[in-house]
Design brief:
The longest helix has 13 residues, at about 175-185. The protein is built from seven helices and 14 strands. It has a seven-stranded mixed β-sheet with strand order 10-9-8-11-12-14-13, with helices on both faces. It has a four-stranded antiparallel β-sheet with strand order 2-3-1-4, with helices on one face. It has helices at about 15-25, 80-85, 125-135, 155-160, 175-185, 215-230, 245-255; strands at about 5-15, 35, 40-45, 65-75, 90-95, 95-100, 110-115, 145-150, 170, 195, 210-215, 230-245, 260-265, 270-275. It folds into two domains: about 5-85, Alpha-Beta Plaits; about 125-275, Vaccinia Virus protein VP39 (Rossmann fold, 3-Layer(aba) Sandwich).
Length: about 280
């Protein structure tokens, strides 16, 4: 018999960074499932694990950098497959990459990726992930030693292995993402992906031919030198996680460190940039 759940429907401004921080904080509490929404994120918790003060110590709710409001809904007899099916639609990128949940039917796409949508950041629905998939689809990455930094669900690392990249390191600072990445790599029968929990300090003495970094602007700028230092000659870096107006800051940091701009993809004011050294 299913438990009674409470659904917290959060409206978050700014949405992208705020939702990532909010989910990370809620993941330390008994909230167990997250769905990205048009205005923020919905978080689910079993009612018997809830108390009226459960959000009192969340940093983000008291931060002047974010504006967050929420409504609470009681949900009886949750069928999670039905919930995910309502919120998680399969996506198709460029006609040959299909991203779906385990309960969706398999397609004939060249790259058929299964992502368990415990939280929908990194499912391919968000503009930044979609653009990074586009970059990977049009790039020959066979045999390239690859880093997926801020891997989320490991969707990009999984696609990279399907396209012949190896070996692949996938890194995320969030424990939820670390565990989910391991599960998704196994779910897609990946044997070349190693998942690590941590930040850019893990990159010391590492070398890669291809770096994928789908992270917010401030972290990219802060860690840019670490990325450049571990990029092999004639290597490629794919960046996303920021807006059109952030391009001058990212590009300035890249060019100052010897990277050469190759290509830009834009999608609904989000941007993905490709550089080589």
């Amino acid at each position: 018999m299913s438990n009674i759940y409470l659904g917290y429907h959060f409206t978050v401004e700014p949405k992208e960074l705020g939702s990532v921080i909010l989910v990370a904080e809620l993941g330390e509490l008994p909230f167990e499932s997250f769905v990205e929404s048009e205005f923020g994120v919905t978080a689910y918790i079993q009612k018997h694990l809830w108390n009226e003060n459960i959000l009192d110590d969340l940093f983000i709710l008291n931060s002047p950098q974010f504006i967050i409001s929420y409504k609470i809904e009681e949900i009886d007899q949750v069928n999670w497959n039905e919930e995910w099916e309502k919120n998680f639609e399969p996506i198709d990128v460029e006609g040959n990459c299909h991203v779906r949940a385990p309960f969706h039917p398999k397609t004939n796409a060249e790259f058929d990726i299964i992502i368990e949508p415990k939280m929908s950041f990194g499912t391919g629905h968000h503009e930044t992930t979609h653009m990074m998939i586009q970059h990977l689809l049009e790039t020959d990455i066979r045999g390239l030693k690859t880093l997926d930094m801020g891997c989320g669900t490991a969707i990009l690392a999984i696609l990279a292995e399907m396209k012949g990249a190896k070996p692949i390191d996938a890194i995320d600072i969030d424990n939820w993402c670390y565990l989910n990445s391991i599960e998704n790599a196994e779910r897609n029968n990946c044997s070349e992906i190693s998942v690590f929990e941590g930040d850019a300090t893990l990159l010391k003495d590492k070398k890669y031919d291809l770096i994928i970094a789908n992270i917010n602007r401030n972290i990219l700028l802060n860690d840019m030198q670490s990325y450049v230092d571990c990029l092999n000659p004639n290597g490629t870096i794919l960046f996303s996680g920021f807006y059109t107006e952030d391009i001058p800051f990212i590009d300035s940091s890249c060019t100052q460190k010897g990277l050469n701009f190759v290509k830009k993809i834009e999608r609904n004011n989000w941007v993905s940039l490709k550089y080589t050294n």
